[in-house]
TrEMBL record:
It comes from the Eukaryota. This is Transcription factor ILI5 isoform X2. Pfam families: bHLH_ILI. One of its GO terms (biological process) is regulation of DNA-templated transcription.
């Protein structure tokens, strides 16, 4: 392996920033606008943290539903099959 690190050009960096910004939902893109890379990275990190919280919340809610559902019911089987997909 080479000890030299490959450098990212300014054009490549701008392209990566544009791609990252395009992955954010429209509402977050508007709040960032043509902002600095650091602001975009902060907004992206906040978005990912919010997604993690949503996943945890939905997972907790699903666990609660499954706990209160008859394990052999048709609804429970549907949910299990969806989770396996």
């Amino acid at each position: 392996m080479s000890s030299r690190r490959s450098r990212i050009t300014e054009d490549e960096m701008n392209e990566l920033i544009s791609k990252l910004q395009s992955l954010l939902p429209e509402s977050r893109r508007r709040s960032v606008g043509r902002a600095s890379a650091s602001k975009l990275l902060k907004e992206t990190c906040n978005y990912i943290k919010n997604l993690h919280r949503e996943v945890e919340d939905l997972s907790d809610r699903l666990s609660g539903l499954m706990d209160n559902m008859d394990a052999d019911s048709a609804e429970a089987e549907i949910i299990r099959s969806l989770l396996r997909s």
